[in-house]
Write a structure and sequence with these properties.
mainly alpha, globular
Length: 222
């Protein structure tokens, strides 16, 4: 139930913050850095060793497939997954490419969280600033309110849907293993991009470094 409820709650929180502030604040970018460090650390500390316990010759290939898949998704979404989505004054229609990309990304990240509480925590914390950024983008684009609500509702439901589908794929451990390997690649790309490319001019500052360290420490001790 947590894998269904918490991702939805994180999007609601993010949407509420964006609606209230109407802008992405520096604190949101710092939370994004913390969530990226947490997600990367949990992936390295727990998720990768778990998948490699059932190593097959395809494991590494599938991980790199996940990396490449995320590259394609971010080309479609303009980097929304790691905070690079900016207001487009020429946007007048519903952003279908961004919508499809974020739905695929959210669906995939839902697969492992039902079996791993720590990954669930990383994904939930990651989704809050992402939801703020996406909501802010859509609000500034002045899309019809029904389109905005539709976009965010589907976005909120995709990760829980992935968690529900993972129970189905548990009947076939080989398939579950392959999907998890792809998700590792997605997590690795998203989290490292957040850490190394989300700052202005790609520079680190004291606050960001401190939160990255805190994210790593959180993942280690939980």
């Amino acid at each position: 139930m947590l894998a269904i409820f918490l991702p939805i709650l994180s999007v609601i929180i993010g949407f509420s913050i964006a609606t209230y502030t109407q802008r992405s604040t520096r604190s949101i970018q710092l939370l994004l850095s913390y969530s990226g460090a947490l997600l990367l650390s949990v992936t390295i500390f727990e998720f990768i060793p778990e998948v490699y316990r059932n190593y097959t010759p395809l494991t590494g290939i599938l991980i790199m497939t996940g990396v490449l898949l995320q590259v394609i998704l971010e080309f479609m979404s303009k980097g929304a997954e790691h905070g690079h989505l900016h207001h487009d004054e020429n946007l007048k229609r519903f952003p279908f490419l961004i919508f499809i990309s974020l739905c695929i990304h959210s669906l995939m990240e839902g697969f492992p969280i039902a079996q791993n509480l720590h990954l669930l925590l990383g994904v939930v914390i990651h989704k809050i600033p992402v939801a703020v950024i996406i909501s802010t983008f859509l609000i500034r684009a002045e899309l019809p309110k029904r389109n905005l609500i539709f976009f965010m509702a589907i976005f909120a439901l995709m990760t829980p849907l992935g968690a529900v589908l993972s129970d189905y794929f548990m009947k076939w451990p080989e398939v579950e293993h392959d999907i998890n390997a792809v998700v590792i690649g997605i997590f690795l790309h998203v989290s490292t991009t957040i850490l190394f490319e989300s700052s202005k001019n790609h520079q680190f500052n004291g606050s960001k470094i401190l939160l990255i360290i805190l994210g790593v420490a959180t993942a280690y001790f939980i």
